[in-house]
Amino acid sequence: MQFDFDKLSVAERYKLLTSTVVPRPIAWVVTQDAAGVVNAAPFSFFNAFSSDPAIVGVSVGGSPRGPGDKDTLANIKATGQFVVCLVSEATAQAMNITAIDMPPGVDELAEAGLTPVPSRRVKPPRIAESPVAMECETFQLVPLGGNTLVLGRVLSMEMRDDCVADPAKLYIDTPRMELLGRLHGRGWYARTTDRVEIPRITWDTWQARKAGKPD
């Protein structure tokens, strides 16, 4: 079946994209406004895009309360700083609470029972319960119609000690983080505990396999 995106509504295009581009990592973005009021919200239109410079991107939509920016985007525009915390299975329910459209001025971290910890390079705090946090400064804001793509340069990464297998070699015990990915619909997520390993192969190995030769 073919879907012509030029003939679909915004909601219909969103439904198709979020039902097929899965699983998506979740950016739990912590910001604060110019007065220091902290905001936290999850976004699954998120990924890493570059290592030199180190860039992560979060796509932020408009405010559900009407015209204007979501608090996350408004705060980033005002301060140029944010922290991306990743969501583990242990923090899933707290993340879901911070996704509630709360009235302005409500402390999402307090509502979810989360612990703010001072960051090292930026003013917004990180979430202590998250296994990894990336402190970012704004690199570029890209208008995308109804959304704005926030590209942030990672200044510092804080990781839970037991998730670092070898600090000298930067070996990370990724499975230990037990991160979640976003799936289809409003409430479906994927664990990263079910994995399959597919080793990379060289061109010569591929040619040998086609010729029926052992690796």
UniProtKB/TrEMBL annotation:
Pfam families: Flavin_Reduct
Swiss-Prot/TrEMBL cofactor(s): FMN
Top-level taxon of the source organism: Bacteria
InterPro entries in the cross-refs: Flavin_Rdtase-like_dom (IPR002563), Split_barrel_FMN-bd (IPR012349)
SUPFAM superfamilies the UniProt entry points to: FMN-binding split barrel (SSF50475)
Alphabetical keyword list: Flavoprotein, FMN
One GO MF term attached to the UniProt entry: FMN binding
Flavin reductase like domain boundaries: 19-173
Family: Belongs to the flavoredoxin family.
PANTHER family on file: FLAVIN REDUCTASE LIKE DOMAIN-CONTAINING PROTEIN, FLAVOPROTEIN OXYGENASE
Name this protein carries in UniProt: Flavin reductase family protein
Provenance organism: Teichococcus coralli
